[in-house]
User: What shape does this take?
Amino acid sequence: MRALALKSGVIVTINQPIRSQRKIKESFSQALELAKATEERGGVTYSKRRDNREGLGVRVPVAWRIEKESDGRWSWRIDFRSHGCEPFRRWIEKSVIDLPQDTQFVEEQNGFISLNWFEKLPDSEKLVVDFLNDCANFKFE
Assistant: This one.
């Protein structure tokens, strides 16, 4: 994994899990199990810069975020409703459904579209790279 992403101009960031700094007085195996149960899984973030932000004819949304809930539904955390961006918003809502099951969120900040996932499923990298490319190259009307 990651070779296709890097060839496609996607930036790959490996997020380190956050481990508890508490000392545990139980056995090593109990401490290890507790650490596994309480740590946040960091995943990997794939990012792509939006192409040709200038001259789109509309103001590109600078900040939006859609997250996957524990029940598998997607919901907006930072929503946008700019004039001319409704087709893009609908496209996002339709497209995130086809992303790998281990995807956590998709967001855009200052022209960078980022997707966080765990890379668990084989052959899922192409789905992520294609999504980021389509998102970055979306033709606003």
Notes: The chain has a mean pLDDT of 79. The beta strands are 11-14, 44-49, 63-68, 74-78, 103-109, 112-117.
